[in-house]
Each structure stands twice: as C-alpha cells, then as structure tokens.
Write a structure and sequence with these properties.
The structure holds 2 protein chains of 2 kinds. Chain A is mainly alpha-helical. In chain A, helix 3 packs antiparallel against helix 4, helix 5 runs parallel beside helix 7 and helix 10 runs antiparallel to helix 11. By secondary structure, chain B is an all-alpha fold. Chain B has one domain. In chain B, helix 2 runs antiparallel to helix 3 and helix 6 packs antiparallel against helix 12. The chains are: A mainly alpha, B mainly alpha. Chains A and B meet through helix 3 of A and helix 3, helix 8 and helix 11 of B.
Amino acid sequence: MSGSRRVTIAASSLLIACLLSSVLLLRQVDQMRAGATLQEVLYITSPKMLKRLSLGYDGLLADIYWTRAVQYFGSHHQAGANHYALLAPLLEITTALDPHLLVAYEFGSNFLAPAPPNGAGLPDRAIALDQFGIRNNPNEWRLYYDLGFIYYMDVKDYAKAADAFATGSRVPNAHPFLRLLAAQMAQHAGEIQTARMLWIATYKTTQDANIRANAVAHLRALQVDEDVTNLEALVGLYQSKAGHLPSSFSEMQMAGMLGGIPVDPLGAPYKLTIEGRVEVRDPDNLPFIEKGTPPGYVPPRTPKFLPAD
Amino acid sequence: MSARIVHIASNTFREAVRDRVLYNLIAFALLMSGAAILVGQISIDIERLVVINLGLTAVSLFGMVIAIFFGIGLVSKEIEKRTLYTVLSRPVQRWEFIVGKFFGLAGTLVVNTFFMAIGVFAALLYVSHRFQGSDGWVLVALYFIILQFLIITALALLFSSFSSPLMAAVFAFALFVIGSFAEDLRGFAAMTQGVTRWLATGAAYLVPNFSALNVISSVAHEQPVAGQLVLFNTLYALIYAAMALCGAVLIFERRNLK
C-alpha cells in the first residue's frame, strides 16, 4: 500500500470517528442541558426591527416565524400546557413581517382563542390578530368568519359575532353561509343549532383535513350533548310515569318512548346507568363532549380525532 | 459591442466556471429539495409560499455573494497575477477591460440564475403538483433579481477599481444593505427640514434602491406585478449599473498601474 493511500485511509477513518464522537458528545451535552434549546425566549420582540433586519427578505422570515409558531403551539399543546407566553408575539411578528399570510390569521387565531387545553385562552389577542388581518386583507371573507367565530365561541359576544358575519357577508365573493350565520346569530344566538351551523360552515368552507376533522369532532360532540339531554329527559319522564327508573333503553322502547336503541354519532349504543344517567360507550372517541361521560372522567391530553366523514 | 469586450467577457465567464463558482448550484439544489420535502411536515399550509420565498431569497443571496466576492477580484486578481499588463499591452482599452469584465460576470450570474430558476420551478411542481398562471410572476421576480445583480456587479467593479479587495467587499455589501433601506431613508429625509432635508434626500436617491427590485413576497402571494414597474425598474437598473460602470471606467482610466 502506498504512503498516500495509507494517509487517505487513516484520515478518513479519523474523520468518521471524530464525527461520531462529536454527535455522541453533543447528545450527552443536550441531556445535561435539558430544555436549553427550547427556552421561552424571543430575542427580538419588535416586528418592525425584524422587518428591517430582514433586508427585504421578510417573506421568508415570516414563513420561518410561522413555522416557529406552529412548532411552539404543537409542542406545548402536546405537553398539555396551560401557558403559551410566546404564541401571541410569534404570531404578531409573523403577520407584521407578512401581513398577507392568511394561514397565520386563520390557524393562529384558533390557536390563541380557545381555553386551555385546546388553545392558549387568549381570545382578546386572537381578535386583535384577526382585526389586523382584516385591515390588511379587507377582501378576505374568511377572516371575518374567523373573527365572528371567536366572538361566538370564546367570548360569547353574540352581537359582535353577528356584526362580523354581516360585515364579512358584504365582501365580494363571500361564502353565502356568512349571510345565514349573521341572521341566525341575530335571532338564535345561544342555541345549539347556531353552534351546529357554525361548525357545518367551518367544515364546508375548508379543504384542510385537520380543520375538517376538528369541525366533525365538534359536530359529533354537539350531537351527543343534545342526545344525552333529550334521553335523560325521557328517562325522567319514564320515571314519573312508571314510578321507577328504566333498567334499559329496551324497557323504554317497549313503553313506546323510543323508536329503537339510541346510538351515538359513531354508531355505538348509549349506555343507561342504574342511576338513570346516559353515557357514551367510549368518551375518548368523542372529544369535546360536555355530557354523557362517566363520573370523574378525564379526557386525554390531546383530543383524539377520528377521520372526518 | 466590440469583439474585444466579448472576448474579455467570455474569458471572465470561463474563469468563473474554472473557479467553481457554479458549485453553489449543488448547495441550492440541496436547499430546495430539503425545503420542499421538510416544510410540509413541520409547518401548516405554506409549502408553496416557502418554496417561492426560500427559492427566490436563495437565488438573490447566492447571486449577491457571487457578484460581490467574485466582482471585487475581477480587477485586483488580474493586477496581482500580472495578467492585466499582458491584456493591456494588446490593443485593448482600459474601459473595454472593465466593460468586458462586467458582462462576463453578469453572464455568469444569468446562467447561474437560470439553473436556480429550474430548481425553484421543479420544487414548485413537487409541492403544488401542477403549475398555475400566477407562477409566471415568479419569472418577473427572477428578472428583478437579475437586475439587482447588474447593479451590485457594477458597484463591486467600481469599488475594486480603486480599493483593496477586502475594502471593496465591505463597501459593496454595505451599499447592498443601505440600498435595502432606500425607502426608509427617503422616509427619514421627508421628516427633516432645510439643508438636512436636501442632503438626506440626495443621499437616499444616490444609494441603489434594492427594495423596489424585491417583489418576492408579493409574487409568493400570487399578486401581479405592474408592467410599468417592470419597465421603470429595468430602466433604473440599467441606468444605475451604467452609472457605476462609468465611475469604474473613470477611476480605472486614471489609475497608475505601475
């Protein structure tokens, strides 16, 4: 073997060995400094300063900040966090860098508004974000829809929700649903049917699989809440007539109070407990339900989304 | 264009290829394919935006770096290697040497941008599965980037005609940064009064306006670019590059090469 070949082999082996050692060492260092790379720090908080520093390449910087916001929300949500200190600043920086990045308003406001564990519980910041989006994109009906949605679902300010839907319905090429929602909101604001209509509108106006799965999960939850309320009322009625609680739904069916064994939106029969409560078979498959869960039930940290139909 | 300028330009292009300038295309290809595959997994709904924003930003920055670092050496390297004396001992005018060098580097950057544009469109096709009409605006953004290269190449040549390569790189890069703030400079000038206002406005108009030539964000959002802007930007870039080139020629003509 020539001298030059020996040097090549030795240097290559050493290079690979050094590379592997450095990776192993870095892993050790990372373990010692757990969380150091995920510090809750924004070194530059001023969107204006960042825009200047981007030297005109603000579009790319906005994409980076949007990805950072998604990762931040995702990791905190996964960990069951109740506090999202950086989420609003990250979204504000993203939209200041690129005021036309619609996805940041649509998803961002839905990350911010819902109460933990489903969101950051910051509806005011979500509203401010959407309003900033509307100022910069006045012809995007979707932003008025998102704003109305937050007013309805998270702030329960039905008048403002109706106003947002009505304003959005006047935008050119607005989805016809907005006009219906504005009217429904004005007349039947707090009713379950209005909430159902909102989630149907959400489902029908998006192609995003995640948003659709979320909308379907909420629609199923509304259905369960309504079913359980009605069934428990019927159980009470049976008790008042028969003088005792029914032992099963079959008994109520035989008494002519039910047309069949009631099933939940996933097709599983509801359970009737000996105390007369109505429960779903598998509450984990029906996230967001407020009724029909066994006593002491704790929902999973991350909602389980089944495929949208 | 005289045959001598063409000859110097083609030699400059060949020298750039020999110096492995086009190797940056490998880094660019890796960047684009990595971004196209990765972004869909770590972000939401911005695959197309990222491909355009990242692709055009990379085309612009890679080109700027080549224009500055290769441009500053165009004259000094020839002096250092003493090849300049051989060239000038033939019937070649000094101005022809400068203009030839300019076209050689500009040609290199155009070829480089052409291959990068293919990469951007390939990545775009990968994430969108088909081209759409608005993708045509990406070509306008690429054209504006080439106009930026013309300006910065001319400036690099201007600075390299009278200073050391290091200082020329610093000057050219500083002017690129200042030029990116050109519109802010004009805004600051409008806030002042009297002589300061005139001086600040003059300075704002003297630095190259790179922000007007940056339409990356708007084309990423499928916003059209006005035909008039294309026309005025073209004229502006050509005039500015010609101005810087004239400066370089004037200085180089008077430079003592002994």
